[in-house]
Amino acid sequence: xxxxxxxxxxxxxxxxxxxxxxxxxxxxxxxxxxxxxxxxxxxxxxxxxxxxxxxxxxxxxxxxxxxxxxxxxxxxxxxxxxxxxxxxxxxxxxxxxxxxxxxxxxxxxxxxxxxxxxxxxxxxxxxxxxxxxxxxxxxxxx
Amino acid sequence: xxxxxxxxxxxxxxxxxxxxxxxxxxxxxxxxxxxxxxxxxxxxxxxxxxxxxxxxxxxxxxxxxxxxxxxxxxxxxxxxxxxxxxxxxxxxxxxxxxxxxxxxxxxxxxxxxxxxxxxxxxxxxxxxxxxxxxxxxxxxxxxxxx
Lengths: 142, 146
What we know:
The structure holds two protein chains of two kinds.
Chain A: E1 5-10, H1 14-25, E2 31-36, H2 39-46, E3 60-63, H3 72-79, E4 90-94, H4 99-107, E5 113-115, H5 120-137
Parallel strand pairs in A: 1-2, 1-3, 3-4, 4-5
Helix pairs in contact in A: 1-5, 2-3
Chain B: E1 8-13, H1 17-29, E2 34-39, H2 42-49, E3 63-66, H3 75-83, E4 93-97, H4 102-110, E5 116-118, H5 123-140
Parallel strand pairs in B: 1-2, 1-3, 3-4, 4-5
Helix pairs in contact in B: 1-5, 2-3
């Protein structure tokens, strides 16, 4: 069996993180979902610092925008400055549909902006389509 | 086709007319109304995006599909230019190529590509790919309005 795809979920709300995990369990791709709670932890994870030493480099980062300590906007700005990390695709996953957030996210290098729906069934469908794109359609850096 | 359906604008940067034709055909098979514009290389693509002659009436695309191997300015050079341009860098760029070279994949994402698609040989596979692409960019994700 091939290695599962690794996704780093950056989300401070435990209920939202739980829902995302459930949606991936309903998906059709084997996913190792790693979860951190803010941008600071996400940067530490990606750089293998402290408790994150030896963790897999994610194939994709799913990023909430509104989080304490370091929010999604700041994380995106920081990660795209780091030469060895900037090739990792980052998709924003949020409840915001503010045009300014959408524009700023793409401007800072996001590779997608998904607005979470209210319905769990719609969310599962969204996650499947996200999987189709990132794990079937496109090639990603190894 | 309901006329009020959103019309998405795609700029295809491709030097090979046969390949461009195939992309157009595949979009026509898709479910989304696409307004596809074609240019032949990175130089033309930048002229188009900057509305320089003969593209003074050009509209900003929702998505750019980019071949890598082209004369004058290749895909990587184009990516570097557009992602350094404050007015243009928010437009998502997806590479669409026959190359499977790991170095091309790595450098494309590094330069800010939002996807890397290897064109299949079979036209039906290609149509399916284009539909997945449409679904992601025109149904799943939100894009900047302008």
